[in-house]
Amino acid sequence: MDTGARESGAVRDVVGVRAPVAHGGVPLLRPATPGDIEVIAELRATVMRADLERLGRYDEHRVRQRLRDSFSTRHTSIIMTDGELAGCVTVRPSEGRQWLEHFYLAPHQQGRGLGSAVLRAVLERTDAQGMTVALNVLRGSAARRLYARHGFVLESQDAIDVFMVRPPGTRADAHA
């Protein structure tokens, strides 16, 4: 690990994202490997269960299979804190945008600033590339507030999903 980066409050991952300190822990983004897929599929099922059940859409098999079907080691980073897997984030180019997908944090890691730290690091990189970032979030999900604080705005929605977009250089809310 780059001790200079640690001293400055950040660690550089292999693809150049700088992840700032989140409440005393330094989140490290490492490239995903094929061996991560089942752990991330389980994390997805855990994190999304309440929202999917609320929407009448939870299916024990499908929630995991959708991750398996779209998992990309090329575009996914694993979020590590204190040597343990804390979550993941995928940033995939498509349709002239970067799509933020599969952004999951373990429940015990939520609400501590880690999601904001990782999201800031991702958005710094996409801003430097001059890229718009798009995502979708389930209707009623608390994650929508996180994205709004970081400059994402409503693009469209349907009965299940809310599609949000953030042009490059959009200022985050003062509360972010």
Written overview of the protein:
This protein has 176 residues and is an alpha+beta fold. The protein is built from 5 helices and 9 strands; from the N terminus they run αβββααβββαβαββ. Mean pLDDT is 85; it is low at 1-24. Helix 2 packs across helix 3. Helices cover 31% and strands 30% of the residues.
What tags apply to this protein structure?
single chain, 176 residues, alpha+beta, 7-stranded mixed sheet, two-stranded antiparallel ribbon, 9 strands, disordered N terminus
Q: Shape, please?
A: globular
Q: What can be said about the biggest beta sheet?
A: 7 strands, mixed
Helicity, in percent?
25-40%
Parts with pLDDT < 50 across at least 5 consecutive residues: 1-24
| Rg over alpha carbons | 16 Å
The structure class reads alpha+beta
Overall pLDDT metric: 85
Strand tally, please? Answer: 9
Helix and strand pattern: HEEEHHEEEHEHEE
Tally of separate helices: 5
Identify the strand order in the major beta sheet: 3-4-5-6-7-9-8
Distance between the termini: 28 Å
Strand proportion, as a percent range, falls in 25-35%
